[in-house]
Amino acid sequence: MDKFVCGYCGKEYDNVEDRMECEKKCRAEILKKEEKEKEAKRNEEMDNDYSNISKLVKERDRLDNQISKAVRSYNKKYDNFGLSINRFFPFAITPFATYLDF
Ligand SMILES: [Zn+2]
């Protein structure tokens, strides 16, 4: 008598119904596994992207501090008679305005 073989796991069955049942189960498990792998990959990418943004933010904050110190020192040194510092800050109303505080 011919055996019925599951196309996924290779188990043998005496009737087609049992084989179909096994294939259904095996297929569901494979899909579940693939879904988990996809999710893990996405989470890893998300962590990497977040970490890259974090690095950029830290770099921006570092530059912000550096600019702030340089502007303060400029203002102190030239007592506002040198080249206007405002030209660096076309949108001077925003956070940078604090740098222009004498
Ligand atoms: Zn199977």
Task: Provide a brief overview of the structure.
By secondary structure, this protein is mainly alpha-helical. It has one helix and two strands. The chain has one domain.
Question: What can you see in these coordinates?
Answer:
The chain has 102 residues and is mostly helical. The protein has one domain (4-100). Helix content is 62%, strand content 4%. It has one helix and two strands. The protein has one helix at residues 16-78, and strands spanning 4-5, 12-13. It has a two-stranded antiparallel ribbon with strand order 1-2. A hairpin with a 6-residue loop joins strand 1 and strand 2 (12-13). The longest helix is centred in the middle third of the chain and has 63 residues, at 16-78. The protein is rod-shaped, with a radius of gyration of 33 Å. Zinc ion is lined by residues 6, 8-9, 11, 22-23, 26. Residues 6, 8-9, 11, 22-23, 26 line the site of zinc ion.
